[in-house]
Amino acid sequence: MKPPASPQKGSVLVVEDEPTLRVLLEHSLRQRGYQVSTVMDGEQALAFLETERPDVALLDWMMPGLSGLELCRIIRQKPGLKDLPVLFLTARTDEQDVIAGLDNGADDYLTKPCSTDRLDARLRALLRRTRPVQDIVTFGPLTLEPENHQVKRAGRPIALGPTEYRLLELFIHHPRKVFSRETLLERLWGPNVHVEIRTVDVHIRRLRKALNETGEADLIRTVRAAGYALDDGTISQHGPSSG
Amino acid sequence: MKPPASPQKGSVLVVEDEPTLRVLLEHSLRQRGYQVSTVMDGEQALAFLETERPDVALLDWMMPGLSGLELCRIIRQKPGLKDLPVLFLTARTDEQDVIAGLDNGADDYLTKPCSTDRLDARLRALLRRTRPVQDIVTFGPLTLEPENHQVKRAGRPIALGPTEYRLLELFIHHPRKVFSRETLLERLWGPNVHVEIRTVDVHIRRLRKALNETGEADLIRTVRAAGYALDDGTISQHGPSSG
DNA sequence: ACGGAGATGTCATGAATATTTCATGTTTCC
DNA sequence: GGAAACATGAAATATTCATGACATCTCCGT
Questions:
Q1: Residue A88 contacts residue A57 (beta carbons within 8 Å)
Q2: Where is the OmpR/PhoB-type domain (chains A, B) (predicted)?
Q3: Do A242 and B161 touch (CB under 8 A)?
Q4: Strand C reaches within 7 A of the A117 CB
Q5: Nearest residue of A to residue B209 by CA position?
Q6: CB-CB under 8 Å, A176 with B107
Q7: Shortest CA distance to B140 belongs to which of B198, B217, B88?
Q8: Mean model confidence pLDDT for chain B
Q9: Beta-strand (E) ranges in chain B?
């Protein structure tokens, strides 16, 4: 089993002939929470798309056999695939051609090499554009709008850093569930990242501070020796046992 | 004392050819509460897996004979072993190969040398992932929600300290069973911890106090000279020896 | 390249809470 | 009654958590 990392972002079909890059893409995207399928060329891609319908396709521009552009054109003609978002990976030298190619209705392109961050951002943008509106999640007085990356408490907007946002996102999708620090590290930071376990405390504190800015009740429950949970105070804390 | 090994975390098969490391792994994992089996190479591993089904396999990447990757592939093809989680131990220099090898996203890896803490954490993550959602457990008026770390009696939330929680957790999974103090020490504190036997009494007392806060019937039965059990009073206390 | 703003990870410290042990009282059983 | 087993309260330790400060890093605009 592999890092399921953050919650499902969406499914990606990677079409890339060079093995090294293909594997690299597959791995890093999976790390980021995408569900990834890979094929080696355009024909395999078409075969794959007969039965599967990924949220987005990531095509290499230069490939043996069908080029990315040709593949894209074919995709556009298939009835069920008209709206499949396509992101091209191109060498910088091809840039002019690509821009020309994008004229007739392709979606976006990215010059390689590029950082995973950049790729991730671009994929998210594409998914955001085409995907049905993501649901607003709520818990008690909290609302989280994935669309805007916006969190509110009782209607009042809350400013959160990236990590705190993802923390709350995880919490709010599992109300009241207690997450150990280890689990939080794994799900927010990824499996192969070494971060002090106590760092979780710090981010919890920042999240708390942001949520309770105006002195309201704390919504994060500390469960001693176990972890943290999003909770609305209707449940008593695990109290002291000494006495 | 620190509550170290929460006993019985799961069973691990260690496949490692180098004797030093194998013994080290075996020892440290056992220390942490895993049930460990070791074999020296891939063939022994396959033989072992014919009859046993560990919760997770820990494979060395580089081994004489079958490599870890080959072994993993074979495992994946066996009908009953498809879902066996596999964790690879790799040298850092192999990292690229490993990433390439973990094609289907079913596995995970760890670069050695690594601390026991790290290994433990990863194994726990792996086990957690494959374990089905934990169910709410009940006994009489009591409910225990492992997910939320929450205990209720007749719907009323009960505040418990960490040790009392684990105590009740053990009890409620074995209703009416009498646990000796020795057993409780072993299962809650771990095998190699020296704690006064009478300390158990104290925690039992705190558990009772918390459960009976509002003056309800005691749910913990003291069995003189034997130990304690979770009981709802429908069974008569140990009768006089005269009958 | 440079500097600032924001974000992140780590640490030291004090506060809060848990754990263990011990002394002593109470119950049980012969 | 008396011994053994158990219950209880409280003190001494030990652990875990919250918090503020700070060094580093990244991202961005100049």
A1: no
A2: 134-232
A3: yes
A4: no
A5: A241
A6: no
A7: B217
A8: 84
A9: 10-15, 34-39, 56-60, 86-91, 108-112, 137-139, 142-145, 150-153, 156-158, 178-179, 220-223, 227-230
- Residue whose C-alpha is closest to residue A171's, from A219, A230, A220, A242: A230
Residue B177 CA, nucleotide C24 C1', distance (Å): 31
Residue pair A62/A70 in contact (Cβ under 8 Å)? The answer is: no
Cα A119 from chain centroid? 11
Residue B223 approaches strand D within 7 Å at CB: yes
Contact call for B122 and A1, based on CB within 8 A: no
- Higher-confidence residue of A64 and B168: namely B168
Confidence of residue A105 (pLDDT cuts 50, 70, 90): very low
Q: Please report the domains of chain A, with CATH numbers, ordered by start residue.
A: 10-130 (3.40.50.2300), 137-230 (1.10.10.10)
Which of A84-88, A199-203, B43-47 is the most confident on average? Answer: A199-203
B107/A1 touch (CB, cutoff 8 Å), yes or no: yes
Among the ranges given (A70-84, A99-113, B199-213), the one the predictor scored with the smallest mean pLDDT: A99-113
C1' (C2) to CA (A110) span, angstroms = 28
Q: What backbone torsions phi and psi does residue B42 show, to the nearest 5 degrees?
A: -65, -35
Q: Which residues pair with B186 in a beta bridge?
A: none
Q: Does residue A91 sit in helix, strand or coil?
A: strand
Q: CA of A186 and C1' of C14: distance in angstroms?
A: 30
Q: What tens digit of pLDDT does each residue of B114-131 get?
A: 777 778 878 887 887 777
Q: Nearest-CA distance from A184 to chain B in Å?
A: 11
User: Tokens standing for A102?
Assistant: 């994008």
Does the pLDDT at position B146 exceed 50?
yes
Out of B148, B157, B162, name the one closest to residue A177 (CB).
B148
